[in-house]
Design goal:
20% of the residues lie in helices and 2% in strands. It is mostly helical. The chain starts with a helix and ends in a 27-residue tail after the last helix.
Length: 493
């Protein structure tokens, strides 16, 4: 017997399978590279890896070793790395390899199912939403369809809410309203509710829930239960149910809102409603300080010389613009008292100082109320313009009871006369409409001012100009005059 035969015979009787309890002979190995002879392996045919040339034992009941078999538990197939699959790095077979691009991992059994019931993705790429077959990024909590839509959040949406409906966001960013599954919409302010349940207060971000059937929370909705409007920045009432007064409060804020409710049927609260009974207009605001006064613009004294806030008293009855303390004591005069301590305006105070009580003396000096103009009255031009906007009839009458004379007086009087005459074209139209019981005379005035209205004053001026008389007739015939000059013929200007 040759030497090689002796070695072969001794090997067959010397070795057995390396698996405990197996007495079968090892598999005879063919000559390998670098070796010029054949040899027996360490395991029998049933316990040797099924890949040709691999001397490692098979893994349990699988026909392949740990390196060449599929790493999915219980799978008898070789890995794609051993079988030459599409990814040589994969440790799984084609049925159990992760479907994510370039992922060599084995799919997780609970991540989803294919037709054969195996998983589709590994633990890093499996979406946690039950039944989802889409892969997720390795650093995300869910796929694009089931990730939380809130910017910066990488959590997955919750599966179900108490209502049983699918949610739109993760547990942290789901609307806090009972039964709502929508994502929170804080409008950039980190709100806790969705757009349907969040308070829509616009002045400042509110994190409270809106009231039932309303768009605002209890703190920012109008206190009137049936009103859906928001309250203003001041108070608990909306613009429709709150005081309509918007003005200064003495603090320099020219747009301060009043938080109180209206008084009675008016639109202003008790503090901002004119103190005159049955008057529902808002109180006037002092131009110098911006503080509210006690009366409206139609009832407040127009005198502005008593401190920054002007005179706080009410106008006297019977017309005029000033209170009893600032109005001329002359009956029928609507002018203001002089700057001194007298009780008359500058127009009616001069004859008394001269001591002329006869009608002839007064007439000789041109003191007729419709005659020659005298010196300028105490009412400034700016204040006169504001007075005209409130009561043009009284200002028109004052143009004849207080004229001007002296340097530049005639030109100033003519300018005022032309201004009043143009304004009277619409004002006379308004007075005729007021007698017809219309409810909106000021609206009609705006429409009538755009029309071509023939002025009775202009017609009278043209008639008298042809007769050589340039005097303008007074707007109201019943103007009280000085008893000392009653019956005196007016002089021409």
């Amino acid at each position: 017997m040759s030497m090689s035969s002796e070695l072969y015979t001794s090997s067959r009787h010397r070795y057995r399978c390396g698996v405990d309890g197996c007495w079968r002979e090892p598999v005879f190995s063919a000559p390998t590279q670098g070796r010029g002879y054949s040899y027996f392996g360490d395991y029998c045919e049933d316990h040797t890896c099924g890949i040709d040339g691999c001397p490692l034992p098979s893994d349990g009941d699988a026909p392949y070793c740990y390196e060449h078999g599929c790493w999915y538990a219980g799978c008898p197939l070789p890995s794609m790395a051993a079988a030459g699959g599409y990814d040589p790095r994969s440790r799984a077979c084609q049925d159990h390899a992760c479907r994510a691009d370039s992922c060599p991992s084995v799919c997780a059994p609970a991540s989803g199912s294919s037709g054969s019931g195996s998983g589709l993705h590994c633990a890093r790429h499996a979406c946690p939403r039950k039944g989802c077959r889409n892969p997720k990024p390795a650093d995300a909590a869910a796929c694009a369809d089931h990730a939380c839509p809130v910017d910066g959040c990488r959590s997955a949406v919750v599966a179900v809410r108490r209502s049983g409906a699918g949610a739109e966001a993760c547990a942290l960013h789901t609307c806090r309203a009972d039964g709502c599954v929508r994502a929170q919409d804080g409008g950039g302010g980190g709100g806790l509710y969705c757009a349907d349940h969040a308070c829509r207060w616009s002045f400042k971000t509110c994190r409270r829930q809106a009231g039932k059937g309303r768009e605002y929370c209890d703190s920012h909705g109008c206190a009137v239960a049936s009103c859906p409007l928001p309250c203003r920045r001041a108070g608990r009432l909306c613009a429709d149910h709150g005081c309509w007064f918007v003005g200064g409060d003495g603090s320099g804020d020219g747009a301060a809102e009043c938080p109180s409710g209206p008084k009675g049927l008016g639109r202003f609260c008790a503090a901002h409603t004119c103190r005159v009974r049955a008057c529902l207009e808002a109180v006037a605001v002092a131009a110098a300080t911006g503080t509210p006064r006690r009366f409206c613009a139609g009832h407040a004294c127009a005198w502005e010389g008593d401190g920054p806030g002007g005179c706080p008293a009410r106008r006297r009855g019977g017309g005029g613009f000033f209170c009893e303390g600032h109005a001329c004591a002359r009956r029928g005069c609507v002018g203001a008292r002089g700057s001194g301590t007298g009780s008359y305006c500058a127009e009616h105070e001069r004859p008394a100082k001269e001591g002329s009580g006869s009608a002839a003396a007064v007439a000789g000096t041109g003191s007729s109320v419709v005659g020659r103009s005298r010196r300028a009255g105490p009412v400034p031009a700016g204040q006169l313009a504001r007075m005209f906007q409130e009561d043009p009839r009284a200002v028109y009458a004052m143009a004849y009871t207080q004229g001007w004379e002296g340097k530049g007086g005639r030109e100033r009087y003519d300018r005022l006369r032309g201004y009043l005459d143009k304004a009277m074209e619409s004002q006379l139209r308004l007075w005729s409409l007021e007698t017809e019981g219309l409810e909106e005379p000021r609206l009609i005035l705006q429409e009538a001012a755009a029309e071509e209205v023939t002025s009775p004053v202009a017609e009278e001026m043209e008639r008298r100009a042809g007769a050589g008389d340039a005097r303008i007739p007074p707007a109201e015939p019943a103007i009280s005059t000085d008893p000392a000059v009653e019956g005196t013929e007016p002089t021409t200007s």
